[in-house]
Amino acid sequence: MLGIGAAVVTVLVWTAFIVIARASAGRSLTPFDLACARICGASLVLVPWGAWLVMKGRRAARQGQAGAAVSSFFGLSPLSLRVTAAAGIFGGVAYAMAAYSGFFFAPAGHASVLMPGSLPLWTTLLAALVLRERITPMRALGLAMIVAGDLVVGGRSLLHAFEGGEVWKGDLLFMAAAFCWACYSVVARRHGLDAVRATIAITVFALMTYVPVYALLVAGGQVASHLGTAPWREVAFQMAFQGGGSVVISGITFTRMVQHFGPVRTTMITALVPGLSAFGAVIWLGEPLYWNLVAGLLLVTAGILFGVQKSAPARALPLVPLASSSAPVMGRPTNV
User: Fold this and answer.
1) Is 66 among the domain residues?
2) Dihedral angle of Cα 188, 189, 191, 194, to the nearest 10 degrees
3) How many domains does the chain have?
4) What is the pLDDT of residue 317?
5) What are the beta bridge partners of residue 326?
6) Are the C-beta atoms of 115 and 18 separated by less than 8 Å?
7) What is the mean pLDDT of residues 302-319?
8) What is the mean pLDDT of residues 111-116?
9) pLDDT of the residue at 262
10) Which domain holds residue 132?
11) Position 322 in a domain
12) CB neighbour class for 245 (10 Å; exposed up to 12, middle 13-18, buried from 19)
């Protein structure tokens, strides 16, 4: 029952991430405000957790356990500075900025297909390039279906880019967010990172880099921020959901899913997210359900499932994506 419960929570949080992020784009906060709220909300839980892990590791090191005292960023990240920075740039800062910015241009239905749909495509290509993993014919066919689905959904807006529309900008940002998360996934797989420690590390990195730079830019007038004028309930909600829900809770439940179902079945379960979030956008946001969106959802979902069926023997390490999110997600490494 615990594994089933973790699966339900993960799918619901990832689905809600896409719907809520799009709804938030029509309210007070800017995309960079949302990223800041996400980072600060997650930091309230993960930074003390990271400090505790580092102190625990140092005690173990004093008892003679080699490598137990590795840390960085003043003892808050349980990973080395090099690994924390590499994972944090892609999985923390770049992913959050691209994903949230995309929702200000394109509807949630596009995000439903282009973010979770593009993730296995980018991850497989990067894994083949960096990790020298072989792309089997069956997986190649699944990736071709994903590309076709992405083109069906995003191709139309790209064709109308010169007619004054801005949806194509959001589509490209969603693709960029998926690429950033794929880079993070490859970094995590290459270094064999533990899901919890990796999630803590990228949160610490984002807190120590993004937040102070963002504060300086806002103070200097280079970047607009509505954090000071937005209703406090909205800010508190975004910190709680984007940080506590999308990063912390979905990270823990996704890890539990992998432990209970294994990486292949977990990926098959999370393939529900594109369809659920797209239909959630229709129900709660009033977005139209065009034929190309339905066709893209079917192609992407089939491509994910088809590719996973033949990738079961692969040695890919399951990671936790940020609700990332989908994501989705900063926060949740992926296993595609």
Assistant:
1) yes
2) 60
3) 1
4) 42
5) 328
6) yes
7) 57
8) 88
9) 67
10) 2-309
11) no
12) buried
